[in-house]
User: Which sequence fits this backbone?
């Protein structure tokens, strides 16, 4: 009876997705990221701008902490901007005028956002920025784009060429310049009106993620784990040992540090590329995707413990944590959510309890059903299958049950650079 209700609810959802009730538009915010082609002069100026924005951020954060210790009220973004004018006029800080004021103001806006996230319990307390770590600054306006010649004009930097790998659609909103390893990138965020999407597929799928195998679908499709960190771990360890033997801040130390940074960047790019390919395949072929609502932060907590209460199996848990974080499950779910939103599909997150212990044939729940990591054998009816495949089937059924009860899980978390805002416009 529950399965019948779930299937009817699923059919209703799919019919609703594909029902042409009216023509509507969706306001889409999308970011296009490109690598910059820099000269020596531009490279110097980018480092200086990043340093100026970092200095303003840290100075404002120190001022806010000082006011808090003295029992005074926190300054707002407008109040910090007034102080910024005085800082730029200070003879000892005259070098701040070499950077656009709007980029410095955006650093103060980032600090204001960090405080809001802290008070909303979405993040930790704002921390001071370190030199050489996540260098970035943003321009909200006064940016010109020349796609025909693959170049962009930034305030006080002039025209800079970039590696044009795709066309940019929509009206330009803001531009963020960031550094990763020894390369600089420009992220161009645009806004455009797109027609309300209608998903090309009418099927639903359950996805079970794991460590030994990255993802298993309820139809039996398997995606092997890329394990980019594990494959490069030995090479990374060699580079880090060489770095530890160099004199700090010497020329050889900087070269060795750059090698470590490049390798970390390559590992992250390999993982991100695989996640994009996998999430695109799944989202394009299925209108409804059911996944586990995993708490990655809790699953990857350290087991070291304290001096009074030391942890157990610390080495084994450390290896498991590395394997979990090497998969990128959080990023995988984020990509599925925004890609399904763009395509007109739906992502349903279900609780992860007992999905790998429930028999999909008779419904018997028993921990002994999963005798090994890979094999599932029901102790009640003798049903046999791959454990990951069983988990994906149970996830799909749990998603159908949520639809039958009229429940869908909204993420409630940021989609980072690809948020989707929907505005419907009725057309006669």
Assistant:
């Amino acid at each position: 009876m529950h399965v019948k209700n779930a299937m009817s609810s699923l059919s209703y959802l799919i019919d609703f997705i594909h029902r042409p009730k009216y023509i509507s538009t969706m306001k889409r915010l999308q970011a296009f990221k490109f690598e910059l082609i820099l000269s020596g002069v531009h490279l110097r100026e980018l480092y200086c701008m990043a340093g100026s924005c970092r200095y303003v951020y840290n100075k404002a954060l120190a001022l806010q902490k000082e006011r808090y210790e003295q029992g005074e009220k926190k300054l707002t973004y407008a109040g910090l901007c007034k102080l910024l004018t005085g800082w730029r006029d200070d003879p000892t800080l005259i070098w701040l005028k070499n950077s656009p004021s709007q980029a410095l103001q955006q650093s103060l806006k980032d600090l204001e956002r960090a405080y809001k996230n802290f008070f909303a319990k979405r993040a930790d307390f704002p921390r001071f920025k370190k030199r050489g770590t996540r260098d970035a600054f943003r321009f909200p306006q006064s940016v010109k784009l020349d796609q025909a010649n693959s170049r962009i004009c930034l305030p006080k930097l002039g025209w800079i060429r970039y590696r044009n790998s795709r066309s940019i659609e929509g009206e330009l909103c803001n531009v963020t310049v960031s550094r990763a390893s020894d390369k600089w990138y420009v992220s161009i965020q645009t806004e455009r009106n797109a027609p309300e999407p209608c998903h090309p597929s009418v099927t639903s799928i359950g996805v079970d993620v794991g460590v030994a195998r990255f993802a298993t679908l309820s139809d039996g499709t398997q995606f092997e784990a890329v394990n980019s960190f594990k494959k490069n771990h030995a090479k990374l360890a060699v580079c880090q040992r060489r770095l530890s033997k160099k004199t700090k801040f010497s020329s050889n130390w900087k070269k060795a540090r750059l090698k470590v940074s490049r390798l970390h960047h390559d590992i992250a790019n390999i993982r991100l590329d695989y996640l994009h390919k996998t999430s695109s395949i799944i989202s394009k072929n299925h209108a409804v995707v059911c996944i586990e609502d995993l708490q990655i932060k809790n699953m990857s907590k350290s087991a070291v413990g304290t001096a009074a209460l030391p942890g157990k199996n610390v080495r084994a848990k450390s290896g498991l944590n590395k394997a979990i974080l090497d998969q990128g499950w959080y990023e995988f779910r984020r990509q599925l959510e925004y890609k399904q939103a763009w395509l007109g599909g739906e992502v349903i997150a279900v609780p992860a309890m007992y999905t790998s212990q429930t028999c999909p044939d008779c419904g018997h729940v028993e921990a002994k059903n999963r005798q090994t990591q890979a094999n599932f054998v029901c102790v009640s009816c003798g049903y046999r299958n791959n454990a990951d495949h069983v988990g994906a089937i149970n996830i799909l059924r749990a998603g159908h049950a949520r639809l039958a009860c009229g429940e869908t899980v909204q993420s409630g978390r940021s989609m980072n650079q690809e948020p989707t805002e929907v505005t419907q416009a009725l057309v006669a």
The chain is about 40% helix and 20% strand. The longest helix spans residues 251-285. Confidence is low (pLDDT under 50) at residues 1-5, 409-428.
